[in-house]
Structure formats: structure tokens, C-alpha cells
TrEMBL record:
Species this chain originates from: Eragrostis curvula (weeping love grass)
Main location per the UniProt record: mitochondrion
Name of the protein described by the UniProt record: ATP synthase mitochondrial F1 complex assembly factor 1
Keyword Phosphoprotein tagged: no
GO biological process: mitochondrial proton-transporting ATP synthase complex assembly
């Protein structure tokens, strides 16, 4: 495990005040003090109409933005300014080891691509391998956030479905260090393990950043009638059962 002599990150006592899942509105998607739901696009309205024919139902047309956990409540930002990008990432990764959270990072250029692509493609479904099969996660993206819940829960409860997992991207060092810090929070440990959360983060990013995989995301959001879930399984080398 890499350790830095600089006490860059907040103490465990301070970190303990961080809840595993941000506050929710009636158990549903996470909301700030005065929320305004995202207006549905024409493509998303079409998505809501068409997906039930393929076994999906009650897809949301958008979600309310998350209440942001300030970066300075996790990291000593002033001290971090004096670190190299490599040392900053190392400290960030070390801090999140074994704490019930996921730490990661990405280059600013990739973040901007992710931001651009997710602006018009805010939804996707990702299979997560478990045991001898897979569960399907439904994700909604409104940068700097990604929210995940089980597809079955979303089919049953729509926007009131509780999030299993949230991802926040922090851009404070994007310009000065070409680095975007990423934090994943598992809301329900009974629904998702830390290892599964790490895989989900990497997989979600890959579908938005890899050109071939992103075509499937575009198809899901813009050409719903042609979308085939088996293509997602094949992209991940999973059996179509």
C-alpha cells in the first residue's frame, strides 16, 4: 500500500461523518434542498414508450441532481495543491482502500468527453456478473454524477427506486493537474459489494469513452427500437443465455 508522509486527507474521525449514501427523498433518487427534475428529451420520451415492449417499464425521463459532498470535506485541498498529479492520485487511492468507498481518477480530456457524450445520452443498462449469471443495473448520468439502481427495482418503482450506488467526479484539479478525482459510494452494501462497485464504475466509463461501446449507449437513448440488450452482453463477453 502506498503511503505519503503528508497528512493530506481528512482524519478517519472526520470521514466517519460521511454517510455511505447521500440523503434521499422518501427513499428515492437523491435530491438537493430545492430540486428541479430534469426535463425529458424527445428521445427519452420515446425510450419510455418503447422499452416496455422489450420487458422494461417505468423508465424515468430524468433525475434530480445530487447534493454534492464538498471535496474539502474529504481532502485538504490547500495541501493537495502542492502535490504532483501522481502523488495526489496515490493519496486519493490509498485513502479509499478498505473504507467502503471507491477511489479512482481520470484525465481531464476523458472527463470532458464523458461529459459531452452523457449530455445527450443519460441512460444505460449494464449487466453485472454475479455467481453463474448476471444482474442488470440501470444507470442515469448527469455529470458530475452517475447513479445506479437495480433494473428490477427501477421497473417496479420508477424514480422512487432507491439508488444502490453513486459516483461523483471532482474537477477541482482538472485544469492545474489534468486530473479528475472520482469517488464511488455504495449506498446499500446488501445490494452491491465494493468489488462489484469498482467493476461497475470501470464498465460504465468504458461504455461512454470507448467509441465502439458508445454506439450501444447512443442506440439505447436515440434509437430505442433497434437496441438489443444481447449486444451489450456480447460487448462484455458475457453469455447471452
Amino acid at each position: 500500500m502506498r503511503r505519503l508522509p503528508l497528512q493530506l486527507l481528512r482524519s478517519a474521525a472526520a470521514a466517519a461523518s460521511s454517510v455511505r449514501g447521500p440523503a434521499t427523498n422518501g427513499g428515492g433518487w437523491i435530491v438537493p434542498p430545492a430540486p428541479h427534475p430534469v426535463a425529458p428529451t424527445a428521445a427519452e420520451a420515446d425510450l419510455a414508450r418503447r422499452l416496455p415492449r422489450r420487458g422494461y417499464s417505468k423508465f424515468a425521463s430524468g433525475f434530480t441532481p445530487l447534493q454534492r459532498k464538498p471535496l474539502e470535506s474529504i481532502l485538504d485541498v490547500e495541501r493537495a495543491k502542492g502535490l504532483s498529479p501522481e502523488h495526489l492520485v496515490a493519496a486519493w487511492d490509498d485513502y479509499h482502500l478498505g473504507r467502503g468507498h471507491i477511489g479512482a481518477s481520470m484525465k481531464a480530456k476523458l472527463y470532458h468527453l464523458l461529459e459531452q457524450r452523457s449530455d445527450t445520452c443519460r441512460h444505460f443498462v449494464i449487466p453485472l456478473w454475479r455467481g453463474s449469471g448476471y444482474i442488470t443495473m440501470f444507470m442515469q448520468v448527469q455529470m458530475p454524477y452517475m447513479i445506479f439502481t437495480g433494473l428490477e427495482d427501477y421497473k417496479a418503482r420508477g424514480t422512487q427506486a432507491s439508488p444502490y450506488y453513486t459516483i461523483t467526479h471532482y474537477t477541482e484539479f482538472a485544469e492545474t493537474k489534468d486530473t479528475v478525482l472520482i469517488r464511488g459510494d455504495v449506498v446499500f452494501t446488501s445490494k452491491l459489494t465494493d468489488e462489484e462497485a469498482k467493476v461497475l464504475l470501470e464498465t460504465a466509463h468504458s461504455f461512454y469513452l470507448n467509441d465502439m461501446r458508445y454506439r450501444l449507449v447512443e442506440g439505447f437513448n436515440k434509437e430505442t427500437h433497434e437496441f438489443e440488450f444481447k449486444d451489450v452482453l456480447q460487448a462484455l463477453d458475457m453469455p447471452t443465455m
